[in-house]
Design goal:
The complex is a heterodimer of chains A (642) and B (123).
Chain A (H helix, E strand, L loop, with lengths): L2 H23 L8 H28 L5 H21 L6 H34 L4 E6 L2 E6 L8 E4 L8 E7 L1 E4 L1 H4 L5 E3 L4 E2 L4 E2 L4 E7 L5 H13 L6 H29 L4 H14 L3 H20 L2 E3 L2 H7 L2 E7 H5 L5 E7 L1 H12 L5 H13 L7 E6 L3 E6 L2 E6 L11 H12 L3 E7 L2 E9 L6 H10 L3 E5 L4 H11 L3 E3 L7 H9 L3 E6 L5 H6 L2 E5 L12 E3 L5 H36 L11 H20 L9 H5 L1
Parallel strand pairs in A: 11-18, 11-20, 18-19, 20-21, 21-22
Antiparallel strand pairs in A: 1-2, 1-3, 3-9, 4-7, 4-9, 5-6, 5-8, 10-22, 12-17, 13-14, 14-15, 15-16, 16-17
Chain B lengths: L1 H21 L6 E3 L1 E3 L2 E8 L3 E2 L2 E4 L5 E7 L8 E4 L4 E4 L5 E6 L5 E7 L5 E6 L1
Parallel strand pairs in B: 1-5, 3-6, 5-11
Antiparallel strand pairs in B: 2-3, 3-4, 6-9, 7-8, 7-10, 10-11
The chains are: A alpha+beta (642), B alpha/beta (123).
């Protein structure tokens, strides 16, 4: 019989006795007196409470005790004593046994529902997966089940369909809603050569994808695997409760007997009174709230993180985040976009970009890519240069539409005329640690293009959020200090450590650890040693390449603001665990002396049924508080103040 | 006189509980039965796990068959935290759980509330 059914049986047969108890205040008694109580309680015991006894006995034979042991002993004691009391004509308390059963089952019904609730994050993730795919077979597209798709297959995705596999677009373009996997709320534009993630939803156009990952290798599968492990991991704080739960139940039983002995033998209370105190102790002490406190919060917290594109690996990470006081960032690819970009164009915008791009069209210099990207973005039509000449270490010259043009550094422009206004701009841009190229036409410099590996648009906000949290921020980079300082100033980072060789990053992290707990944020591929050295390694993912192994926290989307969100979520979850443990301990540890009658002289006691109610509430409140983590606000302290 | 008797009985009970639950009692260890290319163990879930300690051979695909007879919601899930497994155990239905035996070592499993434990040894 299910717990829910057992609860209803127990409730229905307890209600008349409850009515009798209330009625007593108004001079009304239950018809049939003790006999009615006996019949009602016997039904409750046989139908609803019997499984407790069976489980308790099975445990007992294995030298174990569990919460059912407590419930079974509590209810059996009350029931059997009442039988004896009835025979000998003394006051009975059948209703205690029935009420305790009802309340305990009530707690379990809710708890079961809540636990299923908190565990379904993984299920939701798995269900995101598309069921089938339209795969190119020969010249036509055939619909096949997903597990028949193989690496290298071309898959067609129509608007409104789920992208079935991880892959790269070979034809077509569209905007794709990736929120379910990365947490990114805005649709992402996708063109040829862009990577798409399985289980995301195609919104506007039809495109073809070349499959790069299927089955266990897909990003979604990896995320599911990670979340599963995280949800069932142990937090170090739990070790205490692990130890406690093993000895708790037998200890409580001994305490209950001691309570009885003290009342009956030393304080001269009657047999029945002493027994009630002992039964209350047994009933209130159930440690299940203690056992539920950590796993439920961990489950909800990590599940919620997964929805936001923040993967927290386990309970240990969660606990470590709490003590972090310094966050170290890798510069390239983390704070900055990782590829040079044109930041400023001085002079006639179109003309300058057009000439520069036309000349650089044939060049393979990384700066050339930045200029060509800008030309593409501005939709500038390029002209065909002739007499193309590359001058080593200086730049390029060529003839464009009959004029001699050049693009290069100051050395190349030394012979050309440079107006004072442009000269001033040049110095200013260089002071901002940007690389500046001069664009000239017929021996006159007509404009400047400044290029920089620019900070991501969100970096500044992200750093401000972390600082508002009271964290120290440090930037590590292999660049020279001038470039590094300029970037640091733009994003607002406190300390810069420049000229760091890739191999030294871990050492720098170690050094910072002497002053406190350190989190390191890096891209996960090059920074693996630093990520593992740090107390908390935060790996930023990009595209389908999530660096699961190196980071304690993995950020699926390439947004630095998630660092703050991840810290906030971890702290919230850990605080919730602590709060849960606190309440569980309060219920159990404070409840026991009250139930034992320590405060009897103050008129403060707990009857067995109240103890049962308190116990039901303790597990219920712990699970509810964990589930409420789903609703807790995860936002930066900075925005809260504003 | 009755009081003395009650006291003695009570103290004896306390002593019995201490001995029964905290004393050293041998736990049953079972080695997996090997069939061609596979190993499996049946585990009964009733007031705990029997056997409580199982030994698996490294590198051979393994299946643990859990059958819950106990009505207690305490035992309605089995969790292998090292393997990321959290399996619901419907009452009186056998649930097969596949174990990755590639890495030797000792692993704990527990019920959903972390009250009952079992140990898995891969060697």
């Amino acid at each position: 019989m299910s717990i829910t059914k057992r609860f209803w049986v127990s409730l229905i047969f307890s209600l008349p006795m409850l009515a009798g108890m209330i009625g007593m205040l108004f001079g009304w008694t239950l018809p049939g007196g003790a006999w009615t109580q006996l019949i009602l309680t016997t039904i409750v015991m046989l139908v609803s409470a019997r499984p407790f006894w069976q489980s308790a006995w099975a445990s007992f034979t294995k030298h174990h005790a569990n919460m059912d042991t407590l419930v079974a002993i509590g209810t059996a004691t009350a029931y059997i004593y009442s039988l004896y009391a009835m025979v000998t004509g003394q006051a009975v308390f059948f209703e205690s046994a029935a009420f305790v059963t009802t309340f305990v089952l009530l707690g379990q019904v809710f708890e079961e529902r809540m636990r299923n609730n908190s565990a379904n994050a993984v299920e939701k993730l798995v269900n995101l997966q598309a069921k089938n795919a339209e795969v190119k077979r020969g010249d036509t597209f055939v619909k096949v089940p997903l597990d028949e798709v193989q690496k290298g297959d071309i898959v067609r995705v129509k608007p409104g369909q789920k992208v079935p596999v991880d892959g790269v677009i070979t034809q077509g373009s569209s905007s794709v809603d990736e929120s379910m996997v990365t947490g990114e709320s805005l649709p992402v534009e996708k063109h040829v050569d862009d990577a798409v993630i399985g289980a995301t939803v195609n919104e506007t156009g039809t495109f073809l994808v070349k499959t790069s990952q299927v089955g266990q290798g897909t990003m979604l599968s990896q995320i599911v695997e990670l979340v599963k492990k995280a949800q069932n991991s142990h937090a170090p704080i739990q070790k205490l409760t692990d130890k406690v739960s093993n000895i708790f139940v037998p200890a409580v039983l001994m305490l209950a007997i001691a309570t009885f002995l003290v009342w009956n033998v030393f304080l001269g209370a009657s047999f029945a009174e002493s027994l009630i105190f002992a039964v209350s102790v047994v009933v209130i002490a159930c440690p299940c709230a203690l056992g539920l406190a950590t796993p439920t919060a961990l489950m909800v917290g990590t599940g919620r993180g997964a929805k936001m594109g923040i993967l927290i690996k386990n309970g240990e990470v969660l606990e470590a985040v709490n003590d972090v006081d310094t966050v170290i960032f890798d510069k390239t690819g983390t704070l900055t976009a990782g590829k040079p970009k044109v930041t400023d164009v001085v002079g006639n915008q179109t003309q300058v970009v057009q000439i520069a791009a036309s000349l650089e069209g044939a060049s393979e210099h990384p700066l050339a890519t930045a200029i060509l990207d800008r030309a593409k973005h501005d939709q500038v039509t390029l002209s065909d240069p002739t007499d193309f000449r590359a001058i080593e270490g200086q730049g390029v010259t060529a003839t464009v539409a009959g004029h001699t043009a050049f693009v290069g550094n100051e050395k190349l422009g030394a012979n050309a005329q440079l107006s004072p206004a442009l000269k001033q701009s040049l110095t200013q841009l260089q002071d901002e640690a940007k690389t500046v190229v001069l664009v000239g036409l017929d021996k006159t410099v007509i404009g400047l293009i400044a290029i920089q590996d620019a900070p991501k648009p969100t970096s500044k906000e992200a750093i401000a959020d972390l600082k508002a949290r009271g964290l120290k921020t440090i930037m590590l980079t292999g660049d020279n200090s001038r470039v590094a300082n300029a970037v640091a100033k733009q994003v607002g980072i406190d300390t810069v450590i420049a000229d760091v060789l890739p191999g030294q990053k871990a050492d720098q992290v170690k050094q910072a650890q002497q002053n406190g707990r350190v989190a390191f944020v890096g891209d996960g591929i090059n920074d693996a040693p630093a990520l593992t050295t740090a107390d908390v390694g935060i790996a930023m993912g990009s595209g389908t390449d999530i660096a699961i192994d190196s980071g304690g926290i993995v950020l699926v989307k390439n947004d630095l603001r998630d660092v703050d969100r991840a810290l906030a979520l971890s702290k919230k979850t850990f605080n919730r665990i602590k709060l849960n443990l606190f309440w569980a301990f309060v219920y159990n540890v404070l409840g026991i002396p009250v139930a034992a009658g320590v405060f009897f002289t103050l008129g403060f006691t707990l009857s067995p049924e109240l103890a049962g109610l308190a116990m039901a509430f303790s597990s219920l409140s712990v699970v509810t508080s964990s589930v409420l983590l789903n609703r807790a606000k995860i936002s930066a302290p900075r925005t809260q103040v504003a | 006189m009755t009081k003395l008797l009650v006291l003695i009985i009570g103290l004896l009970l306390i002593g019995f509980i201490a001995w029964w639950f905290f004393g050293h009692h041998a736990t049953k260890t079972v080695e997996a039965a090997q069939t061609t290319g596979q190993q499996s163990i049946d585990i009964d879930v009733n007031g705990g796990y029997s056997p409580e300690q199982v030994v698996l051979k490294q590198g051979v695909p393994a299946v643990l068959n859990f059958t819950r007879q106990d009505a207690s919601s305490c035992l309605d899930r089995v969790v292998f935290s090292d393997f990321g497994i959290n399996q619901a155990l419907p009452q009186n239905q056998t649930q097969a759980i596949k174990i990755d035996t590639s890495k030797p070592g000792e692993y704990q499993w527990a019920c959903g509330m972390d009250m009952f434990h079992g140990k898995l040894i891969i060697k």
